[in-house]
Amino acid sequence: MAPTEPMTGDASSSPSRPKLSLSRRLLIGAIVWSIIAVVGGIIAMTVSYRAQTIRLLEQELDSTLTTLPRALEILPNGRVVDQEEKLPSDVRYNLPLSGRYWAIVAINEDGGFDADIRSQSLWDGPLPVEAELAAEALADPGATKYGNAIGPADERLRVAVKSIIVPNRDNPILLMSAADREATDEGANQLRLLLLISMTFLAGGTLIALWVGLRLALLPFRRVQLHISQIRSGQRAKLDGDYPVEVVPLTDELNKLLDNNRAIVERAQTHVGNLAHALKTPLAVLRNEANGPTPLDDVVRRQTEAMRSNVDHYLKRAQAAARAEALGVRTEIKPVVDGLVRLLNRLFEASDIKVSSNIAPNLYVRIEQQDLEEMLGNIMENACKWTKARVDVSAEQGDNALMFIHVDDDGEGLTAEEMEAAVKRGVRLDETAPGTGLGLSIVADIAEMNGGKLTLSTSPLGGLRATIGLRKS
Predict the structure, then answer these.
(1) What pLDDT sits at residue 172?
(2) CATH number of the domain that 106 lies in?
């Protein structure tokens, strides 16, 4: 089983992914705007159409009201009679419950309806005039007032009412004309349905075209993302694809950033190498000069050895840190392990120690080859020192884009406390063995700098298992 401890690097430092991509935000905005435009457009055009058709209907009703006074005759006693030949000639007024009605109503002294003259279509049903509408017309003689009412056939009517003052009569006369508005309302409903269907198809087609356009427009950025991933994994050195004009400034700046990163790493490696030579030479001189038997010579030898160990440790750590910052690095595990296996089998041939590996080809980790060799060399050599007869090296792919490399031996192993202390710098669990105690601490540092971790556990062979977890390329 691979270690379950969290690794440093990608999991802790990577920024959180946005909840919505740019394309989704644009699509959501377009959908919201389309809904507003469709609903608003349908409402506006339907209301406008209905108002226009009602206006035309009211013009017909007003025309009827204009013809009705011509058919009136006022007798000397104030009685109102009609002249049939002058009445509206529309045949619909002669058909019972046809939906077209008119009436001439005499108003009595109390303001109520008196005798009336009506079209045959109205038959003997009640006058389709609301009291409020009649009161408005009586209060403003000569002005036409419009309203709605329920007709004798329970149809919805548009009603026009006007009051007039005539000679030989003290009280006004109320003129009424009405028409069924079902055709008008039905036309508005049909228009609304037609608009809903057509505008929905129009908005849907526009959204589909926008979605396709966004997908095509964002393809170059997906290519840039893929190429950057290939740079990180070492498959590509720079962004050299055929990009659109709008993306070229971005890729140029990224390439400059990559070049600057490589230059910084190269300068850091150069400075580290210069520092190593500058420090090691004086230390070697001091060590050679302190070759006498005096206590002072012994102190100088021990202190210069400690200084050399510390210089080696921090120089290796600085070199590893510089290489870890470089982009586009990756190393195949199998060639590195196979080379170390051959070397260690020759070195420990006299001790009857067998080093073997079982690693599949084409397994890569995101680390410089020199750093991987440094880590595995330390761990595998340490295993050979403490094993009884066998050292096995294996690799497995874990979750969270990690690769685990295991080094197992069949030695005595370590306790939990010893495992924790073994990775600390300068700690040596056995003072009889040669060394400075820096090996495992350097491995831990290099692994951490490359986004990984070194863990120790009990091996299936009975000894110690050292596991390096690194990011896959």
Answers:
(1) 87
(2) 3.30.450
CATH number for the domain spanning 383: value is 3.30.565.10
Residues 6+ apart with CB under 8 A from 399: 2
What is the signed CA dihedral for 333, 339, 344, 347, rounded to 10 degrees?
-170
Q: Which residues pair with 69 in a beta bridge?
A: none
Tell me, what's the pLDDT at 299? 76
The answer on 305 and 344 residing in a single domain is no
Residue 12 lies in a domain: no
| Cβ pair 444, 462 in contact under 8 A | no
- Unique residue bearing structure tokens 């060394």: 435
Q: Contact, 174 vs 165, CB < 8 A?
A: no
- What is the predicted pLDDT for the residue at 460? 92
pLDDT in tens, 286-310: 777 777 778 777 777 778 777 776 6
Residues 6+ away with beta carbon under 8 Å from 152: 97, 101, 122, 123, 125, 126, 128
Q: What is the pLDDT of residues 363-377, one digit of tens each?
A: 888 888 888 998 899
Last residue of a domain, one of 198, 226, 254: 226
Boundaries of domain holding 339: 331-471
Does the predicted TM-score (pTM) go above 0.90?
Answer: no
Query: What is the C-alpha separation between 151 and 128, in angstroms, rounded?
Result: 6
Q: Which helix (H) or strand (E) holds 170?
A: none
Cα–chain-centroid distance for residue 209?
20
Which of 302, 324, 346 finishes a domain?
A: 324
303 and 215 in a common domain = no
pLDDT at residue 51 tops 70: yes
Rounded CA-CA distance 101/408 in Å is 106
Name residue 105's beta-bridge partners.
116, 174
Residue type at 103 in one-letter notation? A
Both structure tokens of 249: 């400034």
Does some domain include residue 152? yes
* Structure token pair of residue 315: 């120089």
Report residue 398: phi and psi, to 5°: -110, -170
Cα–Cα dist 249/243, whole Å: 10
Q: Which helix (H) or strand (E) holds 350?
A: none
pLDDT digits (tens, 9 = 90+) for 394-404: 998 877 678 89
The residues facing 164 across adjacent strands are 173
Q: Which two tokens stand for residue 461?
A: 């062979």
Q: What is the pLDDT of residue 277?
A: 67
SS3 52: helix
Whose tokens are 């026009």? That residue is 160
**Cα gap 313→426, rounded to integer Å:** 10
Strand partners, 471: 402
CB 470 within 8 A of CB 450: yes
How many separate domains does the chain show? 3
Residues 126/116, Cβ–Cβ less than 8 Å: no
